[in-house]
Amino acid sequence: MPESTVTVIPAAWAVGAAALLGLLTIAAAAFDGFLTARVTGAGRSGWSRPVGEVARLMRQRRRTTVAADNLLWRVGGAGLLLMALMIITVVPLGRWTLFDLDVGVIWFNAMDVLAWAFVWLTGWGANSAHSLVGGYRFLAHGLAYELPLMFALVAPAVGAASLNVGTIAAAQRGLWFVVWMPVAFLVFCMGVLAIAVWGPFSPALGTDVAGGVTAELSGVDRLLFQGGRYALLAAGAAFAVPMFLGGGTGPLLPAWAWVLVKTLALLAVFVWLRRRLPAARPDVFMEAGWLVLLPAVLLQDLIVAVIAAGRS
Known about the structure:
The protein is an all-alpha fold. Helices cover about 65% and strands about 0% of the residues.
């Protein structure tokens, strides 16, 4: 079994990690704005669209509803951003990491499950029918993607014989896991899109129910929720790098630079997919999740386990 080669850095560097996540979040929002501008014909102004949107929401007054549970509502709205910050604490930037947990893979899975609570609380806390319907839609998607995602995380852990993220990255020096675990990689990417309420999983924000879970969000609350979605895309892309894309391995550039390059490339794909994949109806996706995705990823785990047993 390969040994983890990461070095734990002082907790004060968490500020730098948060700033780096913020830059990736801004990059994702700017690229999304550019793609939107191309569709609407707004030209190059799309790159600066996030700046205008932030300024607009900062000036906007917070909406209130009758008998809302304000504490749960605010916690749900800001929770996605908190999740993203917690995920990146176990992602090695080259040979540096904030926490070198022996159970780093389980840590990601625990953070992923929190998305259920935070999106649901956003829909529940407003005491509004439209946002509550959006919350139920997200839970319906969650019932279909969560188990496949959990088993997708099993594949690299079995391949490296470890739940430590740094050890999993070190095990890919000869061959990246994405090459012989493609199903697990694709299901993982699907899970990242789901927890960020992105692309095919956007019915929770559907315009057909007046905005879904964000129906009553405005001002700073909406800014935190939308920013959290971009931050989760960035954190998920960063976590995929040591899990499937070889971590910091690569020619010429230092390890930390390769982590950033791979993260940006995958993040760009996630943002681009928003308008390329049709929205998945929760009931249809539940059927596909249980009857197609789950058996496929279990077969992937079996193949990985056989190969890992043969190597040992």
